[in-house]
Amino acid sequence: MKYIFIWQGKTLVRLDLEEITFVSASDSYSKIFLTGDRYCLVRSTLTAVLAKLPTEAFVRTHRTYAVAINHIKTLEQEGLHIGKNFIPISKQYYNAVIARLPIVD
Question: What are the two backbone dihedrals, phi and then psi, of residue 41, each rounded to the nearest 5 degrees?
């Protein structure tokens, strides 16, 4: 599947997975950030959003963040950059993030 649908009011809106850059959560709401500095707000936890996204394309970096692997530009111990955004990586997720990246030594 190359897309998901989200509710925006009473309308289902199609989001192409390639456009999703990262997801941030706060309580029972999540912001799905898209290319072009756009985002959609959904009433869903980060865990529930990640359950609908392909596990090979997205990785959780923090209690409140998950990112699209193909949009990562740089990565450091404390976080990574997607476009102009700095996304934190918590210690508990760092090794899992590194393991998911195709790294050439």
Answer: -100, 130
Spatial distance between the Cα atoms of 82 and 70, rounded to a whole number of angstroms: 9
Model confidence at 46: pLDDT above 90: yes
Q: What is the mean pLDDT of residues 100-104?
A: 94
- Between vectors from CA 97 to CA 74 and to CA 1, what angle results, nearest 5°? 95
Reported residue count of the chain is 105
pTM for the structure as a whole: 0.94
Contact 28, 45 (CB under 8 A): yes
Q: Which helix (H) or strand (E) holds 8?
A: strand 3-8
Token pair 């740089």 in the structure block, residue: 74
